[in-house]
Amino acid sequence: MPRWLVWPGLAAALLLLPHGLSFSQQEILVFLTINVLLVASYRLLTLTGEWSLGHVVIMGVGAYSSALHSKLFGIPVPLSMLLGAGTAALIAMGLSFPLFRMKGFYFLIGSFAAGEVIRLLWKRFRDPFGGPKGLKGIEPMPNFDLGIWRFDFFEPVSYYYFALVVVGICLWILWRIERSPVGLTFHAVHWQDKLAEASGVNVRAYRTLAFVIASGFAGLAGALLAHYIGTINPQSFDVEQMVFVLTWAIVGGTATFYGPILGCIVLTVLNDIVLRALNEIARGTWLAVVDFDQARPLIYGLLLICSVLFLPKGLESVVQRLLARRTASVRAEEAA
Amino acid sequence: MTVPFLEAEGLTMRFGGLTAVDALSFRVEHGVIHGLIGPNGAGKTTTFNMISGFYRPTAGQVRLRGEVISGLHMYEVARRGVVRTFQHSTLFAELTVMQNALVGTHMSFRPNIFAALTGWDQEDRRGAKARAKEALDFFGLLHLAGTRAGDLPHGHQRALGMAVAMAARPDVVLLDEPFTGMNPEETNRMMALMFKLRDSGITILIVEHDMHAIMGLCDRITVMNFGRLLTEGTPQQIRSHPDVIAAYLGGARHVA
Questions:
Q1: What b-and-e string marks burial along A91-122, b requiring 16 or more CB atoms within 10 Å of the CB?
Q2: How far is the CA of B179 from the CAs of A135, B119, B235, in angstroms?
């Protein structure tokens, strides 16, 4: 396939995709699109070598903030999403002062603690966060007519298109950042912070920058989620969700931009589509004794262990191996 | 009286009960190669770490052109023109040789995230690339630009460490044992490059164990022993100084 066809081809496939799916699968597709943004933003943070356990809570900050902006101040929904992302980035900026006094494992634990504090604040304060029950009846995206397609955002397909555009733009921005000198500096901070500092890099400022940008995009993902499902509570952003994000990143691998995205897609398809299908097939046969729905965490954990054992560099390493032959020939051309 | 270019005054570093460097004072003239030598454990590397901002001195000051730079962060010291290399092969092992050098250009071409997103930094990117290429070329590494730094042979890694420092166009460069693990041929080639650097106006402060290199390279040498200044002078003076010989070989006074 010629190279220029790849992107239009992918776009067409993504646009057609929901029409071949069932309603519940369409819903999963929306969540998947949002999660792709979440895990891609998480990778930006891991570029500087830090792994956070508070990323999902930061996503929640975006969700709560966007929901409250639209509810309390009547700010129109797409705009409130941006405000939600901004709030998440601001909170991250504040958190960075205590958190980036730590590195590595200590940062991991510190970020977890900071996240739990935020989550407990949501639980504790009924006003305005709604307490343990969270927020209900969050303002949906306003419908609009594009002529060729009437956007009714209660329809998963419509929301999928909207999320696809937003996530596409965000991924493009994240990609530009990574390939820029700023991204190179992130890598430098990761691999040798002392040498980077000796080269005049303000290491802490760059760690903060990565954290703030990653949090902003996570916040936007949270806002996208909140205005789709219409109800959020502290439980939706607990550490279990964080473990999912970690699993996607680990199974996919974090060496490349597409690694975590790949992990997210593959595991979601496995988890929500293959397992459900298996359940359907098993029903009525002797296999019905195995409840695939209940076995889901078991299978997920098994996949994580298997991927760490047999694919320590993640799914991306498989793709890299497949592409290696092609890039080798491209390099030979460039050299010639 | 003119302000000394680089000056350490009463520099002291204590780690708990151990005084690694004790009230060390010395001056480095502009545009010379200045050696800092001494037996193992004399406090040379600690001194280096204080000058470069890696450690904050317990007492004393480091001044660059009269401005106090001790106690600043390492990146702030670097931005004032004092760039260091590290012992062993401290590199961005996972990045390519070219990317390593590009990180070195960070100060001259400060990345800006908004410019990077809009693509308005093309000029800076080209400038940084040209500067990185120049530094790699100087150290004879340009043909390896696409190689992963961790895959380079040891001698080349040392050279790359210096190329990263040089890409920053420093006024002073602090070299921490640059000749470790180099064969005599590589050492000689590297010495020639250092003379070239000095003649282009860069001041070099160097810690090294290779006496052949130090004696042939330095314009001036400061000798340390047990964290204190032992003596200072030209290589000829140092070579024949009884205290230096005693410190290195264990003189009669110590034996008795």
A1: bbeebbeebbeeeeeebbebbbebbeebbeeb
A2: 65, 41, 18
Cβ A200–B84 below 8 Å, yes or no? no
Q: At B22, list the tokens.
A: 């004790």
Question: What contacts B5, CB < 8 A, 6 or more positions away?
Answer: B27, B28, B29, B30, B64, B65, B172, B203
Chain-chain contact of A198 with B93 (C-beta, under 8 angstroms): no
B75 and A187 within 8 Å at the Cβ level: the answer is: no
Pairwise CA distance, residues B242 & B252, whole Å? 11
Q: Is B73 on the interface with A (CB under 8 A)?
A: yes
Q: What is the ipTM of this complex?
A: 0.85
Distance from CA of A195 to the nearest CA of B (A): 7
Distance CA B185, CA B214 (A): 15
pTM: 0.88
pLDDT tens profile B90-130: 888 889 999 999 998 888 888 888 888 887 888 888 889 89
What does the alpha-carbon distance between residue B194 and residue B31 come to, in Å, rounded to a whole number?
11
| Whole-number Cα distances in Å, B27 to A121, B42, B62 | 57, 18, 10
Tokens found for residue A119? 């989550």
Contacts of B157 in chain A (CB under 8 A): none
A182 touches B102 (CB < 8 A): no
| CB-closest option in B104, B113, B124 to A199 | B104
